[in-house]
Amino acid sequence: MIDTTTFEEHRRMLFGIAYRMLGSVADAEDVVQDAWLRCSQVSTPVENPAGYLTRTVTNLALSRLTSAAATREQYVGPWLPEPLVTRPDIGEEVELAESVSLAMLVVLESLSPLERAVFVLKEVFGFSFREIAGMLDRGEAAVRQVGSRARAHVQARRPRYDAPAEVRRQVTEEFLAACLGGDLNRMMELLAPDVTAWSDGGGKVKAALRPQRGADKVARFLAAVIAQPMDDPQVHAVDVNGRPGLLLTVAGRPDTVACAEVEDGRITEIRIIRNPEKLRHLPPP
Q1: Residue 234: in which H helix or E strand, if any?
Q2: What is the pLDDT at residue 97?
Q3: What range(s) does the SnoaL-like domain occupy (predicted)?
Q4: What are phi and psi of 109, to 5 degrees?
């Protein structure tokens, strides 16, 4: 049996596992809640609550990933994770402490569900291969092989250089000012020549159906988006998965969340999330 106090002690970790595996705040919260419902019904003593809860959440997330595979394949335009948005002046909030960059979540999305589970449990939360094998009902040697393959895949695709937080924030703020001021030349100065921008509208709102590549194309695309008529647009500086970003509200409602990756003082990647279903969990700014 696992009581409420014990469960709450592990909730942050459980949400972190589910979110990294699913890339969805809503789905991660549903999985954690389902895990609680299952565990609260266990009448016998649980010797290792953390391991038991982790096993439950991991397998629930794996099941949800399998059922979501067809939906992801039919997704309209680029798929991006649901963002975790916090105010930049907040310290160790739960969401911020459990965040991971959108770029890394996209890399994890390219793994198979099993690879993702093993990578998250081993590389992020430090479980041993033996423990993971028990959670997944698989042989330790096979799990070790999956983990090695997943680690190599992630290392080959993870961001090449992680700029200091203050540099990311400064470049992001300067780029935002250039966008709002319609300064196309300054926008292009702050964009790397090979910059790529992804926009996720999910077929529900206007967004580019393909990634935009190159400083000129990205700058003109963003300038056209900002120039569209809006009802009381407000731009808020926020942290998106622990990195500097922005939240655009229209008529008081979340409309767009954007986050950039910075290298050598220039923006190399921009991810723009506009799908309303991926923003509905956001609190009022």
Answers
A1: strand 233-240
A2: 43
A3: 173-269
A4: -65, -25
